[in-house]
Write a structure and sequence with these properties.
The protein has one domain. 74% of the residues lie in helices and 1% in strands. The chain is globular. β1 and β2 form a beta hairpin. α2 packs parallel to α7 and α3 runs antiparallel to α7. By secondary structure, the protein is an all-alpha fold.
């Protein structure tokens, strides 16, 4: 594992330059279809408005639900929207394409490139309208945080940022591991929709759930690290030990995903073979 990390650190500048080229290419594509960009932004705004309306209805009859006030819940919705925007910006466009690469034989071309094939198939495509939705989500989080009386300290902001980053890495690893199965299987559409069905639970505080479901959403499919724990960190109600848990889960999941991808490629029969 240490060797993998050392190789990754030494290659970071080259990968950063390559990722920036992907961003520029995505921007050029979006400028060719400006209406599509606008529609994507409007779709994100509509989804956010629907989520806000849902919580407005929930809290129209009560002050708190499972210890969460309306302002705190809306703050969580804003963080969810920002995290969902990041997933949809970078991860989702690529995860849906990987099974297509395998089916059409395009994966062979990625394997011949002098860089990590996992990097290429994971980060090549971006959906730039989602960047606007990230900003909208952060705006809602700030607005609701002011209503909830949040003290915007550097420590709480850093804790929340680290937790969201760890969650995104873990969720990426889970999704990438599932699409890696396309090297053996053909149809994986159901897995993608199952992933998103689980991810949508992140728009609610994990304390809304009880028993086994709550445990699963914390440690197995850890959406709590994406929204609930960052919100609690900003509210000053956070157990700092969860930071270490989040970092450990993110590092181990990314390492195991890379090993699984490497194993799958050793058993991959290319289109040219």
């Amino acid at each position: 594992m240490s060797r993998v990390l050392a190789d990754l650190v030494s290659s970071l500048p080259r990968y950063a330059r390559l990722w920036w080229r992907f961003v520029v290419m995505a921007f050029v594509r979006e400028m060719e279809y400006r209406v599509n960009f606008l529609v994507g932004v409007l779709e994100g705004i509509a989804q956010l408005a629907l989520a806000v309306l849902t919580f407005a209805l929930l809290y129209s009859y009560t002050e708190e639900i499972a210890g969460w006030t309306q302002a705190e819940a809306l703050m969580l919705v804003g963080i969810y929207r920002a995290a969902d925007g990041l997933l949809s910006l970078q991860v989702r466009p690529n995860m849906f394409r990987i099974p297509e690469y395998v089916a059409r034989g395009d994966l062979d071309f990625y394997l011949l490139r002098p860089v990590s094939s996992q990097f290429l198939v994971s980060l090549r495509w971006l959906r730039l309208p989602e960047a606007v939705n990230v900003l909208i989500g952060l705006g809602l989080a700030v607005y609701a945080g002011e209503r909830a009386g949040v003290d915007w300290s550097v420590a709480s902001l850093l804790s929340a940022g680290v937790l969201v980053a760890c969650s995104l890495v873990i969720l990426y690893s889970i999704w990438f591991a599932s699409v890696t199965l396309s090297l053996w299987l053909v149809k994986l559409d159901q897995l993608a929709w199952l992933f998103y069905a689980g991810w949508e639970t992140a728009r609610y505080p994990v304390s809304y759930f009880k028993g086994l479901v709550r445990t699963l959403l914390t440690f197995v499919f850890p959406v709590a690290f994406a929204t609930t724990f960052p919100t609690e960190a900003l509210l000053g109600q956070f157990d700092s030990r969860l930071l270490l848990v989040g970092v450990a889960l993110a590092a181990s999941s990314l390492f195991l995903t890379h090993r699984f991808w490497t194993y799958a490629l050793r058993h991959y029969s290319s289109a040219s073979s």
